[in-house]
Amino acid sequence: MAVSMTPPLAKAPSQIRALAFYLPQYHPIAENDEWWGPGFTEWRNVTKAKPLFRGHYQPHLPADLGFYDLRLPEAREAQASMARSHGLHGFCYYHYWFNGRRVLETPFEAVLASGQPDFPFCLCWANENWTRVWDGGEKEILLQQDYDFDDDLRHIESLIPAFRDKRYIRIDGKPIFLVYRTGIMPDPERTARLWRTAAQNAGLPGIYLIRVESHGDTKDPRSLAFDASVEFAPFNGLRWEVVPRGPLRTLLSRLGLLPAGITRHAVYDYGQMATEMENREHPGFKRFRCATPSWDNTARRQINGTILVDSTPERYETWLRRIATRTREDFTGDERLCFINAWNEWAEGNHLEPDLKFGAAYLQATDRALAAPLANGSVQSVELPIEGKLAPDHRGSVNYLMKRRYWALLEKLKNSSVARSLKYLRTPWGRTEQ
Protein backbone atom coordinates (compact mmCIF):
# COMPACT_ATOMS: atom_id res chain seq x y z
CA MET A 1 0.00 0.00 0.00
CA ALA A 2 1.47 3.33 -1.06
CA VAL A 3 1.98 5.99 1.56
CA SER A 4 1.11 9.52 0.55
CA MET A 5 3.97 12.00 0.95
CA THR A 6 1.73 15.01 0.48
CA PRO A 7 2.26 17.39 3.41
CA PRO A 8 -0.79 18.48 5.40
CA LEU A 9 -2.45 21.66 4.22
CA ALA A 10 -1.16 24.73 6.00
CA LYS A 11 -3.58 26.72 8.09
CA ALA A 12 -5.03 29.56 6.02
CA PRO A 13 -3.60 32.85 7.28
CA SER A 14 -5.97 35.33 8.88
CA GLN A 15 -6.51 38.70 7.25
CA ILE A 16 -5.20 40.12 10.48
CA ARG A 17 -1.53 39.79 11.36
CA ALA A 18 -1.65 39.26 15.10
CA LEU A 19 1.67 39.68 16.91
CA ALA A 20 2.33 38.58 20.48
CA PHE A 21 4.85 40.40 22.66
CA TYR A 22 7.57 37.92 23.63
CA LEU A 23 9.88 37.99 26.67
CA PRO A 24 13.33 36.51 25.78
CA GLN A 25 14.11 35.61 29.38
CA TYR A 26 13.97 32.13 30.97
CA HIS A 27 17.71 31.48 30.81
CA PRO A 28 20.41 32.51 33.29
CA ILE A 29 22.57 35.57 32.61
CA ALA A 30 25.47 37.07 34.56
CA GLU A 31 23.51 40.19 35.54
CA ASN A 32 20.63 38.26 37.10
CA ASP A 33 23.05 35.89 38.82
CA GLU A 34 24.66 38.93 40.47
CA TRP A 35 21.41 40.70 41.42
CA TRP A 36 19.13 37.79 42.34
CA GLY A 37 21.36 34.77 42.92
CA PRO A 38 22.93 32.03 40.77
CA GLY A 39 20.67 30.47 38.16
CA PHE A 40 17.91 33.05 38.51
CA THR A 41 15.22 33.22 35.84
CA GLU A 42 11.61 34.38 35.89
CA TRP A 43 10.57 30.84 36.78
CA ARG A 44 11.84 31.46 40.31
CA ASN A 45 9.40 34.35 40.78
CA VAL A 46 6.59 32.41 39.12
CA THR A 47 6.81 29.41 41.45
CA LYS A 48 6.96 31.58 44.61
CA ALA A 49 3.66 33.35 43.92
CA LYS A 50 0.71 32.69 46.25
CA PRO A 51 -3.00 33.59 46.27
CA LEU A 52 -3.60 36.79 48.24
CA PHE A 53 -7.39 36.73 48.63
CA ARG A 54 -10.35 34.50 47.89
CA GLY A 55 -10.52 33.66 44.21
CA HIS A 56 -7.06 35.07 43.45
CA TYR A 57 -5.44 32.88 40.77
CA GLN A 58 -1.83 32.23 41.73
CA PRO A 59 0.57 30.68 40.99
CA HIS A 60 0.44 30.54 37.19
CA LEU A 61 2.25 27.32 36.29
CA PRO A 62 3.09 26.20 32.74
CA ALA A 63 1.49 23.11 31.25
CA ASP A 64 2.34 21.89 27.74
CA LEU A 65 5.73 23.61 27.36
CA GLY A 66 6.86 23.18 30.97
CA PHE A 67 9.60 25.23 32.65
CA TYR A 68 11.61 25.68 29.47
CA ASP A 69 15.08 27.15 28.90
CA LEU A 70 15.17 29.51 25.91
CA ARG A 71 18.75 28.58 25.09
CA LEU A 72 17.30 25.33 23.71
CA PRO A 73 16.23 25.42 20.03
CA GLU A 74 13.62 22.75 20.78
CA ALA A 75 11.87 25.12 23.20
CA ARG A 76 11.83 27.99 20.70
CA GLU A 77 10.58 25.72 17.91
CA ALA A 78 7.78 24.35 20.10
CA GLN A 79 6.65 27.90 20.94
CA ALA A 80 6.54 28.95 17.30
CA SER A 81 4.70 25.80 16.26
CA MET A 82 2.09 26.35 18.96
CA ALA A 83 1.64 30.02 18.08
CA ARG A 84 1.38 29.34 14.35
CA SER A 85 -1.22 26.61 14.79
CA HIS A 86 -3.45 28.99 16.80
CA GLY A 87 -3.63 31.86 14.35
CA LEU A 88 -0.72 34.08 15.43
CA HIS A 89 1.34 35.66 12.67
CA GLY A 90 4.52 36.31 14.63
CA PHE A 91 6.36 37.31 17.79
CA CYS A 92 7.41 40.80 18.81
CA TYR A 93 10.60 40.17 20.78
CA TYR A 94 11.57 42.58 23.51
CA HIS A 95 15.03 43.92 22.74
CA TYR A 96 17.39 45.35 25.40
CA TRP A 97 20.08 47.85 24.47
CA PHE A 98 21.92 49.96 27.08
CA ASN A 99 24.45 52.16 25.25
CA GLY A 100 25.84 49.27 23.29
CA ARG A 101 25.34 46.73 26.05
CA ARG A 102 22.84 44.04 25.10
CA VAL A 103 21.04 41.93 27.69
CA LEU A 104 18.88 38.82 27.29
CA GLU A 105 20.01 38.72 23.67
CA THR A 106 20.86 35.01 23.50
CA PRO A 107 17.47 33.60 22.37
CA PHE A 108 16.93 36.13 19.59
CA GLU A 109 20.52 35.98 18.40
CA ALA A 110 20.11 32.21 18.08
CA VAL A 111 16.88 32.66 16.14
CA LEU A 112 18.62 35.11 13.79
CA ALA A 113 21.77 33.04 13.29
CA SER A 114 20.08 29.67 12.80
CA GLY A 115 17.14 30.75 10.66
CA GLN A 116 14.91 28.73 12.99
CA PRO A 117 12.13 28.71 13.85
CA ASP A 118 10.78 29.84 10.48
CA PHE A 119 8.27 32.17 12.09
CA PRO A 120 7.88 35.93 11.51
CA PHE A 121 9.22 38.38 14.09
CA CYS A 122 9.89 42.01 14.85
CA LEU A 123 11.60 43.87 17.70
CA CYS A 124 10.45 46.22 20.46
CA TRP A 125 13.13 48.25 22.25
CA ALA A 126 12.33 48.01 25.96
CA ASN A 127 14.12 51.28 26.69
CA GLU A 128 13.63 51.73 30.41
CA ASN A 129 15.79 51.26 33.47
CA TRP A 130 16.04 47.87 35.09
CA THR A 131 15.20 48.30 38.77
CA ARG A 132 15.05 46.10 41.82
CA VAL A 133 11.29 46.65 42.03
CA TRP A 134 10.62 45.79 38.35
CA ASP A 135 8.96 49.13 37.49
CA GLY A 136 11.32 50.82 35.02
CA GLY A 137 11.54 53.80 37.38
CA GLU A 138 14.31 55.93 38.82
CA LYS A 139 14.81 54.21 42.19
CA GLU A 140 16.95 51.18 43.06
CA ILE A 141 18.35 51.12 39.52
CA LEU A 142 20.24 48.00 38.51
CA LEU A 143 20.93 48.90 34.88
CA GLN A 144 20.42 52.47 33.71
CA GLN A 145 19.22 53.60 30.28
CA ASP A 146 21.13 56.64 29.01
CA TYR A 147 20.74 58.36 25.66
CA ASP A 148 22.89 60.11 23.06
CA PHE A 149 22.57 60.43 19.31
CA ASP A 150 25.86 58.68 18.49
CA ASP A 151 24.53 55.69 20.40
CA ASP A 152 21.22 55.93 18.53
CA LEU A 153 23.14 55.48 15.27
CA ARG A 154 25.18 52.56 16.61
CA HIS A 155 21.97 51.00 17.88
CA ILE A 156 20.05 51.09 14.60
CA GLU A 157 23.09 49.95 12.60
CA SER A 158 23.39 46.92 14.87
CA LEU A 159 19.83 45.93 13.93
CA ILE A 160 20.25 46.08 10.14
CA PRO A 161 21.04 42.31 9.87
CA ALA A 162 17.78 41.52 11.66
CA PHE A 163 15.83 43.97 9.48
CA ARG A 164 17.17 42.22 6.36
CA ASP A 165 16.05 38.76 7.54
CA LYS A 166 13.31 37.33 5.32
CA ARG A 167 11.22 36.57 8.42
CA TYR A 168 11.24 40.16 9.66
CA ILE A 169 7.75 41.73 9.68
CA ARG A 170 7.36 44.69 7.33
CA ILE A 171 4.83 47.26 6.24
CA ASP A 172 5.18 48.29 2.60
CA GLY A 173 8.64 46.74 2.60
CA LYS A 174 9.79 48.69 5.67
CA PRO A 175 10.80 46.72 8.78
CA ILE A 176 8.66 47.70 11.77
CA PHE A 177 10.44 48.72 14.98
CA LEU A 178 8.67 49.47 18.25
CA VAL A 179 9.85 51.68 21.11
CA TYR A 180 8.32 50.97 24.50
CA ARG A 181 8.74 54.43 26.08
CA THR A 182 9.28 57.34 23.74
CA GLY A 183 8.31 59.65 26.60
CA ILE A 184 11.67 59.21 28.34
CA MET A 185 13.77 59.77 25.21
CA PRO A 186 15.37 63.26 25.14
CA ASP A 187 14.45 63.98 21.50
CA PRO A 188 12.51 61.09 19.93
CA GLU A 189 11.80 63.08 16.75
CA ARG A 190 15.49 63.58 16.05
CA THR A 191 16.22 59.94 16.83
CA ALA A 192 13.44 58.80 14.51
CA ARG A 193 14.79 60.86 11.62
CA LEU A 194 18.31 59.57 12.25
CA TRP A 195 17.04 55.98 12.21
CA ARG A 196 15.16 56.49 8.94
CA THR A 197 18.23 57.90 7.24
CA ALA A 198 20.41 55.05 8.53
CA ALA A 199 17.94 52.44 7.27
CA GLN A 200 17.85 54.04 3.82
CA ASN A 201 21.66 54.29 3.75
CA ALA A 202 21.74 50.54 4.44
CA GLY A 203 19.67 49.91 1.32
CA LEU A 204 16.31 49.44 3.05
CA PRO A 205 13.23 51.33 1.80
CA GLY A 206 12.99 52.94 5.23
CA ILE A 207 11.74 51.92 8.66
CA TYR A 208 8.19 51.87 10.05
CA LEU A 209 8.30 53.23 13.61
CA ILE A 210 5.65 52.39 16.19
CA ARG A 211 5.53 53.92 19.65
CA VAL A 212 3.97 51.92 22.47
CA GLU A 213 1.31 53.70 24.51
CA SER A 214 2.84 52.65 27.80
CA HIS A 215 2.52 54.43 31.14
CA GLY A 216 -0.54 56.34 29.94
CA ASP A 217 1.34 58.14 27.17
CA THR A 218 -1.09 58.53 24.24
CA LYS A 219 0.70 61.29 22.32
CA ASP A 220 0.15 61.49 18.56
CA PRO A 221 3.05 59.48 17.06
CA ARG A 222 3.29 61.88 14.13
CA SER A 223 4.47 64.62 16.50
CA LEU A 224 7.53 62.44 17.16
CA ALA A 225 8.11 61.49 13.50
CA PHE A 226 6.78 58.01 14.23
CA ASP A 227 4.30 56.29 11.91
CA ALA A 228 1.84 54.79 14.38
CA SER A 229 1.21 53.82 17.98
CA VAL A 230 0.10 50.59 19.62
CA GLU A 231 -1.98 50.22 22.75
CA PHE A 232 -0.38 48.52 25.72
CA ALA A 233 -3.08 46.48 27.39
CA PRO A 234 -4.11 46.60 30.15
CA PHE A 235 -2.78 49.94 31.32
CA ASN A 236 -4.81 52.17 29.02
CA GLY A 237 -7.97 50.66 30.48
CA LEU A 238 -7.43 50.71 34.25
CA ARG A 239 -9.90 53.12 35.81
CA TRP A 240 -11.76 51.65 38.77
CA GLU A 241 -10.50 49.23 41.36
CA VAL A 242 -12.81 46.39 42.43
CA VAL A 243 -12.78 47.82 45.94
CA PRO A 244 -12.77 51.57 45.21
CA ARG A 245 -10.55 53.84 47.25
CA GLY A 246 -12.61 56.04 49.52
CA PRO A 247 -14.42 56.05 52.88
CA LEU A 248 -15.83 52.52 52.49
CA ARG A 249 -12.46 50.99 51.67
CA THR A 250 -10.80 52.92 54.51
CA LEU A 251 -13.42 51.67 56.96
CA LEU A 252 -13.17 48.05 55.83
CA SER A 253 -9.37 48.22 56.02
CA ARG A 254 -9.40 49.67 59.55
CA LEU A 255 -11.79 46.95 60.66
CA GLY A 256 -9.42 44.33 59.28
CA LEU A 257 -12.07 43.04 56.88
CA LEU A 258 -10.06 43.47 53.70
CA PRO A 259 -7.24 41.02 53.00
CA ALA A 260 -3.72 42.40 52.63
CA GLY A 261 -3.73 41.44 48.96
CA ILE A 262 -6.44 44.01 48.30
CA THR A 263 -4.90 46.82 50.32
CA ARG A 264 -1.29 46.32 49.17
CA HIS A 265 -2.07 46.03 45.46
CA ALA A 266 -4.34 47.61 42.86
CA VAL A 267 -7.05 45.10 41.88
CA TYR A 268 -9.21 45.68 38.80
CA ASP A 269 -12.00 43.81 37.06
CA TYR A 270 -10.92 42.30 33.73
CA GLY A 271 -14.31 42.82 32.08
CA GLN A 272 -14.47 46.52 32.97
CA MET A 273 -10.92 47.04 31.73
CA ALA A 274 -11.64 45.28 28.43
CA THR A 275 -14.81 47.32 27.92
CA GLU A 276 -12.91 50.54 28.64
CA MET A 277 -10.32 49.70 26.01
CA GLU A 278 -12.89 48.45 23.49
CA ASN A 279 -14.80 51.73 23.68
CA ARG A 280 -11.86 54.07 23.08
CA GLU A 281 -12.65 56.52 20.30
CA HIS A 282 -10.57 56.67 17.14
CA PRO A 283 -7.66 58.99 17.98
CA GLY A 284 -7.27 60.58 14.54
CA PHE A 285 -3.95 58.84 13.91
CA LYS A 286 -2.85 55.26 13.28
CA ARG A 287 -3.25 53.23 16.44
CA PHE A 288 -2.92 49.45 16.42
CA ARG A 289 -5.14 47.72 18.95
CA CYS A 290 -3.94 45.38 21.70
CA ALA A 291 -5.61 42.83 23.98
CA THR A 292 -4.30 40.94 26.98
CA PRO A 293 -5.47 37.55 28.24
CA SER A 294 -4.82 38.53 31.87
CA TRP A 295 -2.46 40.45 34.16
CA ASP A 296 -1.05 39.88 37.64
CA ASN A 297 2.50 40.94 38.49
CA THR A 298 2.41 40.03 42.19
CA ALA A 299 4.82 37.19 41.43
CA ARG A 300 7.39 39.97 41.07
CA ARG A 301 6.11 42.58 43.46
CA GLN A 302 5.26 42.26 47.15
CA ILE A 303 3.49 45.63 47.21
CA ASN A 304 2.02 48.01 44.61
CA GLY A 305 1.34 45.29 42.10
CA THR A 306 -1.51 45.26 39.60
CA ILE A 307 -4.03 42.42 39.44
CA LEU A 308 -6.84 41.77 36.99
CA VAL A 309 -9.52 39.46 38.36
CA ASP A 310 -12.23 37.44 36.61
CA SER A 311 -10.46 37.02 33.30
CA THR A 312 -11.85 34.12 31.25
CA PRO A 313 -11.03 32.82 27.76
CA GLU A 314 -14.56 33.79 26.69
CA ARG A 315 -14.18 37.43 27.77
CA TYR A 316 -10.77 37.64 26.14
CA GLU A 317 -12.16 36.15 22.93
CA THR A 318 -14.96 38.71 22.75
CA TRP A 319 -12.48 41.55 23.20
CA LEU A 320 -10.08 40.19 20.57
CA ARG A 321 -12.95 39.67 18.11
CA ARG A 322 -13.85 43.34 18.52
CA ILE A 323 -10.23 44.31 17.89
CA ALA A 324 -10.02 42.11 14.80
CA THR A 325 -13.21 43.62 13.42
CA ARG A 326 -12.05 47.19 13.99
CA THR A 327 -8.65 46.42 12.51
CA ARG A 328 -10.33 45.18 9.34
CA GLU A 329 -12.42 48.35 9.23
CA ASP A 330 -9.64 50.83 9.99
CA PHE A 331 -6.67 49.41 8.06
CA THR A 332 -5.82 47.81 4.75
CA GLY A 333 -2.94 45.73 3.44
CA ASP A 334 0.19 45.37 5.57
CA GLU A 335 -1.18 47.71 8.25
CA ARG A 336 -3.80 45.21 9.34
CA LEU A 337 -1.85 44.49 12.52
CA CYS A 338 -2.99 43.89 16.07
CA PHE A 339 -1.02 42.94 19.16
CA ILE A 340 -1.49 40.61 22.11
CA ASN A 341 0.21 41.21 25.42
CA ALA A 342 1.76 38.70 25.82
CA TRP A 343 3.00 35.31 24.70
CA ASN A 344 5.01 34.40 27.80
CA GLU A 345 5.07 37.03 30.55
CA TRP A 346 4.59 34.42 33.26
CA ALA A 347 5.67 36.60 36.20
CA GLU A 348 3.06 39.15 35.11
CA GLY A 349 0.35 36.47 34.91
CA ASN A 350 0.10 37.46 31.28
CA HIS A 351 0.57 34.63 28.80
CA LEU A 352 -1.03 32.76 25.93
CA GLU A 353 1.14 29.71 26.60
CA PRO A 354 -0.94 26.96 28.25
CA ASP A 355 -1.11 26.78 32.03
CA LEU A 356 -2.41 24.20 34.47
CA LYS A 357 -5.70 26.02 35.11
CA PHE A 358 -6.94 26.87 31.62
CA GLY A 359 -4.81 24.62 29.43
CA ALA A 360 -4.78 25.94 25.86
CA ALA A 361 -8.14 27.73 26.19
CA TYR A 362 -6.69 31.22 25.64
CA LEU A 363 -4.82 30.04 22.54
CA GLN A 364 -7.98 28.43 21.18
CA ALA A 365 -9.90 31.64 21.88
CA THR A 366 -7.22 33.57 19.97
CA ASP A 367 -7.60 31.30 16.97
CA ARG A 368 -11.39 31.66 16.91
CA ALA A 369 -11.36 35.42 17.39
CA LEU A 370 -8.90 36.07 14.57
CA ALA A 371 -10.53 33.66 12.14
CA ALA A 372 -14.09 34.99 12.24
CA PRO A 373 -15.08 38.66 12.08
CA LEU A 374 -18.11 39.82 14.01
CA ALA A 375 -21.35 40.33 12.14
CA ASN A 376 -21.77 44.03 11.33
CA GLY A 377 -18.85 44.82 13.63
CA SER A 378 -20.93 44.27 16.75
CA VAL A 379 -19.84 42.44 19.87
CA GLN A 380 -22.20 40.06 21.56
CA SER A 381 -21.79 39.70 25.30
CA VAL A 382 -20.31 36.44 26.47
CA GLU A 383 -22.14 36.70 29.79
CA LEU A 384 -24.82 34.05 30.22
CA PRO A 385 -28.38 35.37 30.26
CA ILE A 386 -30.10 34.99 33.58
CA GLU A 387 -31.87 31.83 32.40
CA GLY A 388 -28.51 30.22 31.66
CA LYS A 389 -27.51 30.52 35.31
CA LEU A 390 -30.57 28.74 36.68
CA ALA A 391 -31.18 25.08 37.30
CA PRO A 392 -33.67 23.54 34.84
CA ASP A 393 -36.65 24.00 37.13
CA HIS A 394 -40.12 24.19 35.60
CA ARG A 395 -40.32 27.64 33.98
CA GLY A 396 -43.57 28.55 35.69
CA SER A 397 -42.68 27.33 39.18
CA VAL A 398 -42.41 29.62 42.17
CA ASN A 399 -38.89 28.28 42.77
CA TYR A 400 -37.82 29.29 39.28
CA LEU A 401 -39.39 32.76 39.53
CA MET A 402 -37.73 33.42 42.88
CA LYS A 403 -34.34 32.38 41.51
CA ARG A 404 -34.83 34.57 38.47
CA ARG A 405 -35.57 37.60 40.65
CA TYR A 406 -32.50 36.80 42.78
CA TRP A 407 -30.20 36.72 39.75
CA ALA A 408 -31.82 39.85 38.30
CA LEU A 409 -31.08 41.69 41.56
CA LEU A 410 -27.47 40.50 41.49
CA GLU A 411 -27.13 41.75 37.92
CA LYS A 412 -28.18 45.23 39.08
CA LEU A 413 -25.86 45.22 42.06
CA LYS A 414 -22.77 43.53 40.64
CA ASN A 415 -21.10 46.74 39.45
CA SER A 416 -21.81 48.77 42.56
CA SER A 417 -18.87 49.68 44.79
CA VAL A 418 -20.55 48.02 47.77
CA ALA A 419 -20.97 44.71 45.92
CA ARG A 420 -17.39 44.73 44.69
CA SER A 421 -16.10 45.43 48.17
CA LEU A 422 -18.18 42.72 49.85
CA LYS A 423 -16.87 40.12 47.42
CA TYR A 424 -13.36 40.44 48.82
CA LEU A 425 -14.08 40.67 52.55
CA ARG A 426 -12.14 38.44 54.93
CA THR A 427 -14.37 35.74 56.40
CA PRO A 428 -13.84 32.94 58.91
CA TRP A 429 -14.19 30.41 56.07
CA GLY A 430 -12.34 29.98 52.81
CA ARG A 431 -9.46 32.35 53.57
CA THR A 432 -6.69 32.14 51.01
CA GLU A 433 -4.88 35.40 51.64
CA GLN A 434 -1.38 35.25 53.11
Per CATH, the class reads: Alpha Beta
By DSSP, the count of extended strands is 18
The CATH H-level superfamily is Glycosidases
Shape: globular
Percent of residues in helices = 25-40%
Quote the beta fraction: 5-15%
Whole-number count of domains: 1
Distance between the ends: 64 Å
- Tell me about the biggest sheet? 10 strands, mixed
What name is given to the CATH topology?
TIM Barrel
| Second CATH tier, the architecture | Alpha-Beta Barrel
Structural class: alpha/beta
Provide the residue-averaged pLDDT: 86
Show unreliable segments.
1-14, 376-400, 428-434
Note the total helix count: 14
Rg, rounded, reads 23 Å
Give an account of the 3D structure.
The chain has 434 residues and is of the alpha/beta class. It has one domain: Alpha-Beta Barrel (TIM Barrel). The chain has helices at 30-36, 42-48, 73-84, 106-114, 149-158, 160-164, 188-201, 247-254, 260-264, 270-278, 313-330, 361-371, 398-413, 417-423; strands at 17-22, 90-95, 97-98, 101-102, 121-125, 130-131, 141-143, 170-171, 174-179, 208-213, 228-231, 266-269, 287-288, 290-291, 306-309, 337-340, 344-345, 350-351. Strands 1, 2, 5, 8, 9, 10, 11, 13, 14 and 16 form a ten-stranded mixed beta sheet that branches. Strand 9, helix 7 and strand 10 form a beta-alpha-beta unit. It is globular and about 65 Å long. The N and C termini lie far apart (64 Å). The relative contact order is 0.14.
What is shown here, in short?
By secondary structure, the protein is α/β, with parallel strands linked by helices. It has helices at 30-36, 42-48, 73-84, 106-114, 149-158, 160-164, 188-201, 247-254, 260-264, 270-278, 313-330, 361-371, 398-413, 417-423, and strands spanning 17-22, 90-95, 97-98, 101-102, 121-125, 130-131, 141-143, 170-171, 174-179, 208-213, 228-231, 266-269, 287-288, 290-291, 306-309, 337-340, 344-345, 350-351.
